[in-house]
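Bug #2210: token dump truncated for Chaperone SurA?
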Amino acid sequence: MNILSNQPARLRVTAAVLLIAVLAGAVALMRGSPAQSSESSPVPAKAAAAPEKGAAPAAAAAAQPAPAKAPAVATLGAVQVDRDELARQLESLPPEARAQLKGNRAGLDQWLRARLAEKALVEQARAQGWQERPELKRAFQAAQERIVLQTYLDSVSRAPDDYPAEADLRAAYERARPQLAQPALYRVSQIFLPAALGDGEAVAAARKQAQDLAKRAQAPKADFAALAKSYSQDASTRAQGGDIGYVPLAQLTPEMRPAIEQLKAGEVSAPVQSAAGFHILKLVDLRAASVAPYEQVKDELRAALRTQRQELAARAYLEGLLNAGTVSIDGAALNAAFDQSAAAAAAQPAVAARAP
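Reproduced locally. Full output below:
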């Protein structure tokens, strides 16, 4: 029987850091939503002049040797996964996952087979000209615009490398101190005897045994861990002598909290009854409430402040673009776009019904 409550533990340090980085959602929505693509391709800012003697550069380009392909790691007909592609995939993994995958040949083979199947499917689609479909071209253009928008906006709004200064970090830490408070932690051990509330005979027997064990555990020089290993019916803690480690009071079940609060380190409680049975509790140690030290959270604070600074700069940059000119919205064209989309949506079921 686990004496921990079902209430999930709260990560106070992370919550405090996130609190510092809270911003208006407009920028996030603007940057994360799909860009609306136009029907026409963008006009290049400056067309490159064609050289008068075009044959010479073409011949020089043809004379350049083709870059050597990396050795294939896996092949399926004409498609392959080469060493460089696999290396890039492995580099994207955390070191622990990469080391684990290296020893997992079955998992690696499965990934290679799946990647080969994906590449073969792409080649099959290309052979049928699938990429030339109008809706895919629009999707390609929208994806390209999103990538350009996000990467360019990141480049023009990036916080300076020396931001935040140490003084800014210290000030942010002081503002966040209430959210960085860590509750008192109780190291508790238990002996658990099951007895469902509705079973009067089992409750009476378990209560008698619990009272006896509590007296033995409260005796001078009693070995609580040995008693737990011998008598506790909680499989998750019995092997550790009943020890559940350090937990905040809020994570203990409601029946346990008053008993634990009254104990001093080293003391054993009287039997505590819960819906599942009886618990004999020992407070092994107590860590008083504290505030997370500055050195422990400063890296998270720095990241949060840099993110906040970049979001503010991005919003200002976008607002500057809008304010640089006059925004004009054609109401008639706007209504026509809605009408066109509604007509297209209404026509889709009819098209689907006629499809073979």
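Output looks complete on our side. The first helix runs from residue 12 to 20. Marking as cannot-reproduce; reopen if the truncation happens again.
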